[in-house]
Amino acid sequence: MTAAAVQAQSGRNEGVTMSQSAVVAEQEQPSHHSFVDMLSADDFKSAFRNHPAGVAVITADIGDGPVGLTATSVISVSANPPLVVFSLSSASSSTPTVKQAETVVIHLLGADQIDLAKNFATSGIDRFADRSIWSRLITGEPFLPTSNAWMRGRIVNKMDAGDSTVVAVQILQVDLPGESDRSAQASRPLVYYNRTWHSLSEGSMVE
């Protein structure tokens, strides 16, 4: 073999060796997406502590009696078709029923409905003990007539996400109280911010 051929062959072998080394080095790089490296739950919650959210109550009944929970995770994701999503904590006693339900009612609360928000956020009580705060729709679902607005919808998708379940709901019916029936206090949205309840008003507007 000529000197030129030996040099060419050596170059090819060197290229193979360098390529293999690069693969090995790449495989040995630590993963930056390991669950071990995730931030703590407390740090994650702290990041959202200064992020306000509207307050809603979600109710359902699969035949074993009504259940309901207070939620700050309700968001609209589509107007056509009308879709909303919310999340359910695995720790909530209402989660198993809501996950099995075909339909739910989502209530958007105003500032004067803080008692409803607190009631459906309290564990270890019968949240429907006071019959004056709820009734049933003609379709059977429990609902809260005094809420700022309520939406009846059909669950169209569910996805497990960490220790929660994300639920997608197609809205079938919306009820908005008439302006004559709505007080100034009721029209102010109830907001949860930094572990406390707040309300929005014209005075809170910034430009």
Descriptive labels:
single chain; 207 residues; 7-stranded antiparallel β-sheet; disordered N terminus; alpha+beta
Give the overall shape, derived from the CA principal axes. globular
Radius of gyration: 27 Å
Low-confidence stretches: 2-32
What is the helical fraction, as a range of percent? 10-25%
Major β-sheet profile:
7 strands, antiparallel
Tell me the total number of β-strands. Answer: 12
The SS-based structural class is: alpha+beta
The portion of residues forming beta strands comes to 25-35%
SSE arrangement, N to C: HHEEEEEHEHEEEEEE
Mean pLDDT: 82
Total of helices: 4
First-to-last CA distance: 81 Å
Widest β-sheet, arrangement of strands? 3-2-6-9-10-5-4
Describe the protein's architecture and organization.
The structure is a single chain. This protein is of the alpha+beta class and 207 residues long. 22% of the residues lie in helices and 33% in strands. The chain has helices spanning 3-28, 41-48, 95-100, 114-119; strands at residues 53-54, 56-60, 67-71, 75-79, 82-89, 103-108, 135-136, 142-143, 149-161, 164-175, 190-193, 196-199. The chain has a seven-stranded antiparallel sheet. Strands 1-11-12 form a three-stranded antiparallel sheet, with no helix packed on it. Strands 7-8 form a two-stranded antiparallel ribbon. The longest helix is centred in the N-terminal third of the chain and has 26 residues, at 3-28. Mean pLDDT is 82; it is low at 2-32.
Briefly characterize the structure.
By secondary structure, the chain is an alpha+beta fold.
